[in-house]
Amino acid sequence: MTSTESLAARDAVHQWHPYTQHAIEREPLAVVRASGAELELADGRVLIDAISSWWTSLHGHGEPRLIDAMTQQAQRLDHVLFAGATHEPAVALGEELLAVTPPGLNRIFFSDNGSTAIEVALKMAFQRHVLEGHEARRVFVGLEGSYHGDTFGAMAVGDPDPFFAPFAPLLFEVRRTKPCASALESVLDELGPRAAGVLLEPLVQGAGGMRMHDADFLRAARRMTRARGLPLIADEVMTGFGRTGALFACGKAGIEPDLMCLAKGLTGGLLPMAATLATESYYEAFLSEDRGRAFFHGHSFTGHPIGCAVARASLALALENDVPSRLDAIGARIESRVRAGLEGSPQARDLRRTGGIVAFDLVDPAGGHAGYLAARTPALRRRAADRGVLLRPLGNVVYAMPPACLGPEQADQIADAMLDLADPR
Q1: What does the radius of gyration of the chain's CA atoms come to, in whole angstroms?
Q2: What local confidence, expressed as pLDDT, does residue 365 receive?
Q3: I need a surface site. Which of 48, 70, 333, 343 has the fewest CB within 10 A?
Q4: Which of 266, 299, 320 is the last residue of a domain?
Q5: What pLDDT score was predicted for residue 369?
Q6: DSSP assignment string, 236-272
């Protein structure tokens, strides 16, 4: 066996991969090392990581400053519980994050990944309603086609099709609407005192198909929720740290959410870590001499010192290198080349871009759209890999979201691979 065959064979014996139908997807990429925007495979091939390894690798793989921060912190303090204890990396990271996030956010609750950051926000929002005597406020409002993670609260607020339909009996009630001000207002008016809050991904809905909406809708959502005394929860797990061409999508839209969820780029893709940011009023709502009114949520690795140290280094690098502008320029280059290549093509439509995120929809041979579960998706991934690019289409949606270290020639190679996927052959 070659090293690739050996690794794949060993993998097949015990591993169960995320979002994978193993009966038909039997050939995972055997990755042996990574550097910058590139992944090296066991068979010697090199792929450009055009999706930042599920949108996490912000600066590129193997960034020396992040690795140095990780190493130094591990030697000083590797881990300590965050219940009844604190440490410099967490305190400093909180100060630095809250200095650059939208005004009004003043408290930070650490967790482990995007899904748990969403769970924290949902629990904070609902428990505050309960503490203030508004138990009827239990119906959250989200967007059609939304995705917020795979834990139960996150599944409930996400769109059930195609991921979560089997779990419907176990999920709480949620209303969904188009990203349209009048539609959202109608839902909120209908729910009245039952409305618990609005949760959305600002500017770009990621796993739902890179759906993009404008800042006017976000500003309208902020006005409506504020007028009704409801929280606006911003899921910036994917959009945060420059992906939309601004450090945070909320800042780009000029809105101040009550709760904001961060993960993925928080540590530049080096370590799993997340945070839920809240206004001071949320923190104060839980203060009481009654211990039973505390916010009972936590994780073994909450406020992990090494993760916090790496996140501080990543944020500093993002600010020093103006990562939002870099990603915006990369996205513009890819979009321009793809637009020229798709001109007049009947095989693709709705080319769109926000910051460093570029996407278009494929049209199936019958003239309709192929959904997320389209049979051709694995073949599309293989075609992209044959061109030296790691792409992972969301069903009929071909998209790129590369790291900020990407060079011009690499951007062109990504664009060419995207265009190849629009070829009907």
Answers
A1: 22
A2: 65
A3: 343
A4: 320
A5: 47
A6: -TTTTTTTTSSS-HHHHHT---SEEEE-GGGGTTSS-
